[in-house]
Inverse folding.
């Protein structure tokens, strides 16, 4: 019985490392590429035409992966008026409600973004060079998928282990 | 059905569900009730990728986090102490100036109180400022500087209201300086009254020189940030890239306080903070398109125009409303949710949108320190280990000054607009 939670927590850690690695690589790339564009534009009066589109999508990826990290680290912006005023026991119940809603919404967003990417895949619109839009847009289902799983874990933790507080 | 949805979502918001979840739920439910396919919500969110300003947002935030990680706060405090430490109220003014500088670069994400509070609070107490004054000062200063470039909330306002962000930076300068001056004046008064004005160290040219030399590269930072934008050489996102690069060179290569191996964790921290903002921004893009589709801004507009005649009355109502918003919402959520609704109304009362932005941010800045859930109060309570009620009381005199500034900013539009010409 102990091995399943252990496996889940290991999977969670691996996902976290991958997310962080991607964030670091993308942020590094963003700084470097933005500087390159400035140099090209100001000193060589040229620039990569598709560069801006690429950079805006890099930021989209960073933002969405960052939001996914915020879910993992409990870093989302919230109005926690009730949980601040309630005693410990009430807080857990309220948190369970909040997490369940978050789970439902993230699942719906995952479903919606999956459909969105499918439609885009079929349309085969090209973003730049010969890169189509749809792979750039997979950030949405990826991010909402990860969030769905994280909230599912939080809800499960809240239901099965209500006495020990939420999972970390 | 509609009112049921509203009740449900309000309950969800109060129960501490992330705001992006609440706003997305509103968007999903609204479009679902209209019978529109849900992928429209994601299509609207995807408009995020059409906006070049998000690059600036991320890069400025990254630069701010690198600064927060370095010893920049210590150097800035030393520099301003060498400059001002001897004047009556000197150390309090030092606190005000360094907090404003730091907040402009890091956004009011609590970093200022955490990074500077620990340095300044013991120093203020040693200098015989009262505990109440010192706590109030540092709590309020945690969000001072939001009106100075390149503050993230200014960029977000520009993004949501669709106004020129460089102009917005200019518009914030004088109101921001006014706020700093008024708070400084109060500090001088308090310094004289509490007897801390007795100079404990005489003005020392050598110390000033050493402090300048140490903080030299950080002193150039405003020039780097603003020079590129206002000289017309760089667009905002490019200025942000240069700023990030400059801060990296200064803190990693010159001062060597941020190690290369620390950079990944700083990047992740910055991305997590910006991600939490961007996802709310995306959700509100979707929800706002529903509101506009349903002509909600027009309905509010008609309602207001039938009841409020003068611009003067409108501005008073606006301020009361925004102060209330600032009490319950944090600055980023307030911006993305409220700005799209207010902009058309303000325009119909002939309020300049740059001026509106400054009014907006001043209100939200005050909201950071107002009970019951101003974020500064909680951060300060944690940082200084004081009960929150004591912080409520300490902040009152500062609130009064900030409210006076707000009145000036609101009713003297020229203050915000004169630099734009």
């Amino acid at each position: 019985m102990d091995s399943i939670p252990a496996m889940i927590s290991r999977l969670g850690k691996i996902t976290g490392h991958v997310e962080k690695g991607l964030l670091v690589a993308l942020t590094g790339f963003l700084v470097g590429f933005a500087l390159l564009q400035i140099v090209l534009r100001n000193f060589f009066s040229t620039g990569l035409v598709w560069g801006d589109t690429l950079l805006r999508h890099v930021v989209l990826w960073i933002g969405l992966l960052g939001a996914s990290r915020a879910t993992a680290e409990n870093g989302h912006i919230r109005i926690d008026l009730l949980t601040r005023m309630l005693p410990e026991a009430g807080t857990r119940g309220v948190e369970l409600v909040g997490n369940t809603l978050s789970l439902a919404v993230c699942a719906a967003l995952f479903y919606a973004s999956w459909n969105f990417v499918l439609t885009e895949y079929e349309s085969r619109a090209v973003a730049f060079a010969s890169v189509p839009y749809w792979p750039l847009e997979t950030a949405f289902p990826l991010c909402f998928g990860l969030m769905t799983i994280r909230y599912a874990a939080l809800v499960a933790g809240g239901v099965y282990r209500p006495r020990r507080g939420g999972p970390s | 059905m509609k009112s049921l949805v509203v009740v449900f979502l309000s309950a969800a918001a109060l129960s501490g569900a992330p705001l992006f979840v609440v706003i997305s739920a509103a968007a999903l439910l609204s479009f679902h009730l209209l019978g529109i396919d849900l992928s429209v919500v994601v299509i609207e969110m995807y408009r995020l990728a059409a906006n070049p300003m998000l690059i600036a947002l991320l890069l400025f935030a990254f630069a701010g986090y690198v600064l927060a990680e370095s010893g920049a706060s210590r150097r800035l405090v030393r520099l301003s102490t060498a400059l001002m430490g001897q004047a009556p109220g000197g150390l309090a003014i030092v606190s005000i100036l360094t907090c404003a500088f730091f907040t402009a670069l890091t956004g009011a994400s609590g970093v200022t109180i955490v990074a500077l509070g620990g340095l300044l609070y013991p120093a203020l107490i040693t200098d015989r400022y009262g505990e109440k004054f010192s706590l109030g000062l540092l709590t309020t200063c945690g969000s001072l500087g939001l009106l100075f470039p390149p503050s993230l909330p200014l960029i977000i306002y520009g993004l949501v209201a669709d106004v020129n962000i460089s102009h917005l930076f200019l518009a914030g300068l004088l109101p921001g300086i006014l706020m700093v001056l008024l708070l400084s004046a109060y500090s001088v008064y308090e310094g004289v009254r509490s007897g801390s004005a007795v100079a404990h160290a005489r003005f020392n040219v050598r110390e000033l020189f050493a402090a300048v030399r140490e903080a030299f590269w950080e002193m150039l930072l405003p020039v780097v940030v603003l020079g590129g934008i206002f000289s017309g050489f760089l667009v905002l996102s490019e200025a942000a890239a240069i700023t990030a690069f400059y801060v990296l060179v200064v803190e990693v290569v010159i001062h060597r306080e941020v190690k290369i191996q620390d950079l990944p964790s700083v990047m992740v921290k910055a991305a997590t903070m910006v991600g939490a903002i961007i996802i709310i921004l995306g959700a509100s893009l979707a929800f706002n398109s529903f509101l506009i589709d349903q002509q909600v801004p027009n309905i509010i507009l008609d309602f207001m125009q039938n009841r409020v005649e003068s611009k003067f009355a409108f501005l008073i109502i606006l301020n009361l409303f925004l102060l209330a918003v600032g009490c319950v919402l944090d600055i980023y959520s307030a911006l993305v949710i409220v700005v799209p609704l207010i902009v058309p109304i303000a325009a119909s009362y002939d309020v300049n949108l740059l001026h509106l932005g400054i009014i907006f941010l001043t209100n939200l800045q005050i909201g950071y320190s107002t009970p019951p859930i101003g974020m500064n109060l909680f951060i300060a309570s944690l940082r200084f280990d004081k009960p929150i009620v004591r912080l409520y009381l300490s902040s009152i005199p500062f609130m009064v000054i900030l409210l006076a500034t707000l009145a000036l900013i609101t009713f003297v539009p020229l203050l915000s607009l004169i630099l734009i010409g």
